[in-house]
Amino acid sequence: MLTIVFLYIMLCPLVFVCSVYSPERVHPYEMLTIKIWVLLQPRTLLRGVPRSWAHRLASLQSASKLPEKKLQALLFPLSALEGQLTSGFSIADLQLFEPSMGDIARAERLFCPSAKHKIDYFSSAVRMDHAPLIRQPEVCFIGRSNVGKSSLIRVLFSLAPDVEIRVSKTPGHTKKMNFFTVGKAFTLVDMPGYGYKAPKDFVEMVESYLETRRNLVRTFLLVDGAVGIQEADRVAIEMCNEFGLPFVIVMTKIDKSRQGALLSNLLQVREVIKTHTVCCYPQPFLASSTQYTGVHVLRCFIAHVTGNLPLSGDAEQKPSH
Ligand SMILES: Nc1nc2c(ncn2[C@@H]2O[C@H](COP(=O)(O)OP(=O)(O)OP(=O)(O)O)[C@@H](O)[C@H]2O)c(=O)[nH]1
Ligand SMILES: [Mg+2]
Questions:
Q1: What is the location of CATH 3.40.50.300 in the chain?
Q2: Residue 57 in 3-state DSSP?
């Protein structure tokens, strides 16, 4: 008991500092309550705060408590850049995927586990003949090492606290293709990164996956929003073109980028999509895994492209690739 009291006293200043520097995260009072609850639960003491509590913006319902403007910027970060634009181009030209709140809420249900709808890690593979034989539609996340693939998947699955996804500051952390099942609805694959510190068998593993995976319905190619498209990304884009893969570009870590830099990288991505891609969705998505920006709409897009969410209203009229 004394240890618990001691730990609690030590944690208080830390909780205060965290809450001051993370205004979008939980309220200090909520954090204290969480800490107390965790300390009083012997079984959870060593496991930390359940991930489902980790961010108050993880679900649409909790995010909806934000003021309207902040909520719009959270859900549709592209629109938040509108004010920065100079002549000749409007965000409306890019913002093709505009689901309604109802669509986003329906998509979110797919990411919430239940007794009948299990969301879980399935298996890992380093070679295609080890990849699980699954019929349901599949999406995969590729990108340079350290671009934020595993982090983004982790926040997409943040409403399923039992799903363990490891992230690391060290590039080359994910060494295998990791398969996750979302009930019978779809599977999602976290890939090792390319470029610096890519695993030795990367080409054999990832290229043959992309070339031969029959149930792959969409590839999410992640590009660092703070640095834009790099040489290694161009090679990956070329590979998607060559294999005729429908893919979509997601710009990650947008919280780290100044708006001017983000905008110029966005224009670069738009230009590359226009001039150098065959089956790329015309709209790049913007996301931040630390702030949850763009995450709710990405869930919706995944639900849509895997055939689990016919969209209501305008969004359905827009091209799906
Ligand atoms: N600020 C910020 N940091 C991020 C974001 N996403 C990821 N990171 C950080 O970037 C680092 C790499 O993240 P990972 O998710 O492991 O990257 P990865 O693409 O899976 O990397 P590999 O598995 O090595 O290919 C970690 O330190 C993350 O905390 C983001 O949206 N914002
Ligand atoms: Mg990873």
A1: 60-317
A2: coil
Specify the pTM.
0.83
CA atoms within 13 A on the CB side of 52: 8
b/e 32-53 (16+ beta carbons within 10 angstroms → b): bebbeebbeeeeeeeeeeebeb
Architecture of 60-317 per CATH?
3-Layer(aba) Sandwich (3.40)
Hey, whose CA ends up nearest to atom 2 of ligand 1?
A: 253
Give residue 19 CA to ligand 1 midpoint distance, Å.
22
Ligand 1 pocket (Cβ < 6 Å) reads 143, 145-151, 167-169, 171-174, 192-193, 252-253, 255-256, 288-290
313 CA → ligand 1 middle, Å: 35
Q: Average pLDDT per run of 10 along the chain, which is 321 residues long?
A: 56 45 39 37 30 71 92 92 71 86 96 96 92 95 96 96 87 89 97 84 87 96 96 94 97 93 93 95 96 97 96 56 47
Q: Which of 146, 158, 197, 285 to mutate to test the pocket of ligand 1 (most atoms within 8 A of CB)?
A: 146
Distance CA 72, CA 75 (A): 5
Using the mean position of ligand 2's atoms as its centre, give its distance from the Cα of residue 3 in Å.
36
